[in-house]
Design brief:
The chain is built from 2 helices and 3 strands; from the N terminus they run αβββα. The chain is α+β, with helices and mostly antiparallel strands. Strands 1-2-3 form a 3-stranded antiparallel beta sheet. The longest helix has 12 residues.
Amino acid sequence: MAQSGKGRLNYRCPSCFMRDLDIDMFYDKEKDEYYCLRCQYCGNEADVLEKNEMIRFRYGRMHERITNFD
């Protein structure tokens, strides 16, 4: 998804992204946390980055062709 507007970077919701949904999270300045409108996930920036990094391992070899299954 494209970044909408200028300001804080939009992050993908880790909970939705695990289910192959590409949903941007919104930022709440008062609580200093990100939240998702589709599911009930919310967390601070460090928590979101940590969970998104765990998900990246799922797609880590996406651009490699695997021919040997030994």
